[in-house]
Each structure stands twice: as structure tokens, then as C-alpha cells.
Amino acid sequence: MRAFGWRAVVVFALLAALPLVPGVSRYYLLLAFDALLFGAIAMSLDLLMGYTGLVSFGHAAFYGLGAYATAILMERGVQSVWACVGFALLVVGLYALVVSYFATARRGIYFALLTLIFAEVVYTFFRYTQTFGGSDGIQGLPDATLFPGLVIDTPTRKYYLVLAYLAVAYAICRVLVASHFGRVLVAIRENEDRARFLGYNVQRYKMGACMISALLTGVAGAIYPMRSAFATPDLMLWTESGEFIISVMIGGLGTLVGPIIGGVFFTILRDKVSSIVDWYFIVIGVVLIVIVLFMPRGLLGLRRIFSRERATA
Amino acid sequence: MDYVLTILLPQLLHGLVFGAALGLLALGLTVIFGLLGVMNFAHGELYMLGAYAGIAVIGVTHSFWVALIAAPILVGVVGAVTEMTTLRPLYNREPLYGLILTFGLALVFREGARQIWGGDMRRILPPFTGSTPLLGMTYPNYRLFLLAASSAILLALWLFFTRTRAGIVVRAAVQDAEMLDGLGVDVRRVFTLTFAASGGLAALAGLLLAPVFTVYPQMGVEMILLAFIVVILGGMGSLGGSVVAAFVIGITQSLFSLWMNPQRVAIAIFGIMIVVLIVRPRGFAGREGVLE
Questions:
Q1: Domain carrying residue A127
Q2: Which of A189, A238, A288, A292 is the best mutation test for B, with the most CBs of B within 10 A?
Q3: Of A25, A155, A313, B98, which residue is 20 to 30 A from B154 by alpha carbon distance?
Q4: pTM for this structure?
């Protein structure tokens, strides 16, 4: 609870009260599901981008693999949330072990491109393997069951599922960031060579960060088909990874809370703008450009300006 | 022998043709990488814009040849304006921001093209048809022209980079822009012009390949990954390495597709790439410690 902080508890309590608000329709609950899920993924990515200084362009593969893990089990009659999440952890964990081993051996742009290319291999494999439905993916999945007798069927239950996941993931990230491990990650971001000279096994730390980030993203992926009832290869497309990065940037690097806000903002923006115009990618692109150019600290960076503790750095 | 003449040889030529065009695309990408330290995600979109600009110019002038001159210039102007308004303020910041910015630019360009020209597939007719007997087989004239034109441009670029003062200045900027600035060269102008030229090259590749492939807003997304692979294989920031890698990838791709279906080819190429990065992380010609 200490790592969680009272403000987080208040926010989660308010979020938990959302389905009780009169007038919140099915549609808005499912939008809230997407928004919080996206926020959770962006937060996981922030462990890598914001704290360790590694940009992954392959997170969509962790996400998509998690989704396929659930879909494959459900197609075979397994509906338990725990089984699906467990299977996703296994599959994503094995894949992430390979990716992070090779990718963390390289810095900067090489890391970004290696994660991107590994993800493209996974995407191409699922896109063209008919066993897994090819480009249509796996569709028409049943509802998941949390415990015998408790089916996650209504939008409200789905919403609580993702909210519970977000709370757990947030607690994990908070504890990690505050720990010795988290501080070594920041040291690596600031000066990798110095961290190495201090005697830290830099690659092992980077691999650890990469694995945790991947596993959290994989679980988010495992939850997604429980709302959408499908898993498609498009979830693994590298432009999807780009959208995760956009969310982190919108919210503010290295803040955990920022990327959650960024993911929520991005999802709602995409939903609202796309219902008005069909060129929402232009809007999203322009938002991204404006943020990079004028507010590199993201939405959360605005807080500093308003509270007059404007950092000169 | 029949197999060699009717199947292997044409496929090898296809690979050469594709490799030469890929070289044009990758060369611009690698120079920009050297200058900015980031992969330009919008490069594939400049390639796509080249094809669409070609369609627009052909619509007005009814001439492929005019388009071949005008489209790269138009896209080059787009590149120059983009560089001056969005990338220039980022030169003193971490490369991460440049990477993400170009991703945003790519979204805008791609969707912009879809809004202007629609999402469906288009074709550009080759300016001439027919085929030539060659080594016991017949080969389409346009592809031969494509190979000749791309190779000529690559040769011209090689002469530019090695024999002219301007080319040497660009290479110096790729290696150490700060030092070049200290030597009294207007680095900002070098950056803008280089960005414009790299956009123009991408556009040229897009238009040259358009009669062979199809034109659609997503065409850049598919090409850019291949171009990334070429740039990494060649050793980031190495000009000669990129051209060699482009031919290697072009030929590998077309030979492999004789024996596997196209999807497996994609996976095979990604696989080669991963192995190269692990065994020889700096590619064919990259040097230790550059640009990391």
C-alpha cells in the first residue's frame, strides 16, 4: 500500500465507481476497457522507454502473442481467465527471453530495430499460418470465466477485469521503480558505461526490464480477447507498437502515471476523432509531432508548468 | 540447363532490378541515418509520395519522362520543408525524439495520400513495352531500363560522393557534423539539402518501381522494413555497404521465392538479418563504435 500512495487509491476507487454512474452505457464501458488496457500497456512500455532508455518497436508482438494464447485456449474449450493468463505468460515469456537476450546486447537504434524485426517475424508467421486463421485470426471466442460460475460476460464485469489488471500491474511497476533494481535501470539510462564500471551486469538488468515489460504487455494481450472475442495478426503489426510509443510520449516518459493517461487519451482521441472524420491518423500524427516538438515531457509535463516548479533542465 | 535459362536466370535478373531500386531507397535512408542518428520512418512515405506525384504529373502532362524529373523534385521540396519545420528543432535533443517524430510524419503522409488519392490500388503504365531477347530468354524492356537507370544513378551518386566537394561535405557531415560546423560549413543548409535529396531519391525509386508493382498508400510501409534491413546489413551509415546489401537482399528475395512461398521468404530474410546482427552486428561495412 505504501508504494501505491493514497492518490492512486483514490483514483482507482473513482475508476471502480464508473459503472455505477447513471448514464454510462455499454459503449462507454467498453471504450473505458480499451482505454485502460492501452494505458496499462503504455505503462509497461514506460519501464523500458522511460526508466531504462530503450525504445521497443516490437511490443505489439508481446501483446498479440498474449491475445493468441487466450484465443488458442478458448478455441479448444478452456475458458478460465487464469489458464489463459498463465499460458500467455508462458508463451510471451519464452519469446521475450529470446528477443531480450539478443536485443539487449545492442544499444539505441539497434535495440529498436531488433525488437521490430523479431516482431515482424511473429506477425508474418501468424498472418500466413492457416492453423491460426491466417489474416482473419481467431474469431468468435466465448466469454471467459474467472471462477466456476463467474462468467465475464457483461461490459461491467469486463471493465472490472481490466481495472483489476491495471491496479496489479501499476503496483508491480511502482514497487519495481522504487526498488534497487529500478534505480539501477535509471542509472543505465543516464550512463550505461558508468553503471557497468560500478560493477552492475548491465545486460542482465536490461533483460530483466525487458522481460517484465513484455510479460505485463502479454497479460494485457491475454485479456483483450475476453472483451473483443477475437485475436487477429493486426494486433502484432509494427504500427501498433508505434501507437504504444505514441501513448507513452503523450503521457510523459518515465512517470508510469503519464503513459496510463497517455494511453487513455490516445484511445479516446482515436475513438472520438474517427467517429467524426475518417482521417484521424492525420490528427494523431499531428498530435504526436506537436508533443515531440513543443512538450517533450508529455501531458504530465504540463503539471510542472502550472505548479511553477518548472525545471530549467 | 533449361531450368537455368528459363527460371533461374530471369529470377536472378529480377533480383538485380529490384536490388538496384532498393539501393536508391536505402542510400537516402543511410545518409539520413548518418546525419540524424535516427531511422527515418517517413522514408517509406516519401517513396510512396514519389509514385503518387508521378501519377499526378502524368495526369497533367501525359508523359512518364516528365514525371520522372518532376516527381522527385516535388517530393524533394516536401522533404526540405519537413526538415526545416519539424526536424531542425530536434538536432540537439536525444535521437529518440527524432525517431518518434518521423513516425508521426509517416502517419500524416500516409493518411494524407489516402485522402487525396483514395485507398485503392493504382497502376502506372510503363512508358514502353515489349521485350528483348537476352542470353537465350526474353526479358521485359522496362525492367532492363529500370536496371540501367538505377545503376546509372547509383554510379552518379558514387561519383558525387567521391569526386565532388559537395559530396565530400555530406560525407563529412555524416561522420561528424559538429566538426564540420567548426570548420565553417553551414551545416543546417547541408542537412536541409541532404534531406531533400534523400526524399527525391526515395521518390525516384517509388516512381521507377511503380510500373512493376502497384501504387497504394500503404506501399511505403512494406518497403521501409526491407530498406531498414538493407541499411543495417550494410552497416549503418555506410554508403557503399548499403548498395551492396541492397543487391544481396534483392537477389536473395527473388531466388528464395523460387523455392518458398513469399511469406516464408519474408521470414527467411528477417532470419538472415537477425543472424547477421548477432554474428556481425555492424553489418558488412560498419565500423566499431559509430552511431551507437
A1: 6-234
A2: A292
A3: B98
A4: 0.84
